[in-house]
Design brief:
Elements lengths: L1 H12 L4 H8 L3 H9 L6 H11 L3 H5 L10
Helix pairs in contact: 1-3, 2-3
C-alpha cells in the first residue's frame, strides 16, 4: 500500500489530477485510482514512467528508500 500512498502524495504535490497523471502515462483515471488504492499494480513500464514523471526512483516508490531526498 506504500506504493499507492507515495503515488498519490507525489501526484497531489505536483498539482495533478488522476486524469492528468493517467494522460501522462497512457492509462485511465480508473487505473491511477486503482494504483493509489492498491487494487491495481502498474506494469513495469508504467511504474518506471511514474518514477520519471515524479523525478524520483522506483526504489523510493516501492518504499525501499525512505529518505525523501530521492523524491521530487
Amino acid at each position: 500500500m506504500l506504493i499507492g500512498k507515495r503515488i498519490k502524495d507525489l501526484r497531489i504535490e505536483k498539482g495533478m489530477s488522476q486524469q492528468d497523471l493517467g494522460d501522462l502515462v497512457g492509462v485511465t483515471k480508473v487505473s491511477i485510482c486503482g494504483y493509489e488504492n492498491g487494487t491495481r499494480t502498474p506494469s513495469l513500464e508504467t511504474f518506471d514512467l511514474l518514477a520519471d514523471i515524479f523525478g524520483t526512483t522506483t526504489d523510493y516508490l516501492l518504499g525501499r528508500i525512505n529518505d525523501d531526498t530521492y523524491c521530487c
